[in-house]
Amino acid sequence: MTPFVEAALLGLAAAVGLATLTWLASLVQRDVSLVDRVWSFVIAVPVVAYAWVLPPAGDTRFTVMAVLLVLWAVRLAAYVSWRNWGHGEDRRYQAIRTRNGPSFPLTSLVYVFFLQALLAWLVSMPFLAVLARPVAWTALDAIGAAIAAFGFIFETVGDHQLAVFKGDAANRGKVMDRGVWRYSRHPNYFGECCVWWGLFLMTLPGGGWWSIVSPLIMTGLLLKVSGVALLEKDIGERRPEYRDYIRRTNAFFPGPPKKGTAS
Hints:
By secondary structure, the protein is an all-alpha fold. It is built from 12 helices and no strands. 70% of the residues lie in helices and 0% in strands.
């Protein structure tokens, strides 16, 4: 077995291991939403395994990427935990629980926890790519790091602005269309995608083009699965004022509000 394959398999085992521990905790608390709180760490733990098998030896590229990863993972886990605290199990998981009845524990293990572990492992691929073939720092690395850092800051600002808005009782029932939310209906998701596309760019000097699976999966999840598509599935019917927000504001890429509509 080559060191690359050993690192990849150990990383997958680490992701599955953390997901399994979280599943056991969810059985005790009857709350599958715990998986959302640890999602960022399920992505991060394989990186530890990669570095164990393929030591970075002070590599600048990996160090910068690792710092960005730690900041991203800790912030996201803390924010999701704070946001979900005291709200019980997410309605998505409640629906799955209702449909599956007594078989739900096993179903959730396979289709929620193991599936997310597999996706998290694939998302972590840029880190395996840079450790597998270390090369000198290049201008492309600087560009990628800048994009990732921008994305981290942008999503942090977006989440903070939304939290402050929701924390004001005077805004109850209103649509958040201020700050960065004036330019994008999902600035936090846009920032998240920037993080992973930026990290991917940093793999290219060493030939890590194959790790493009990482930003593609993250972008697909945020746009088509658990992000924009899910959140806006029927929101226009439930909240008519949101329809106007949709008309005047880009869904993903930030841009100036469209003219001819209310501001």
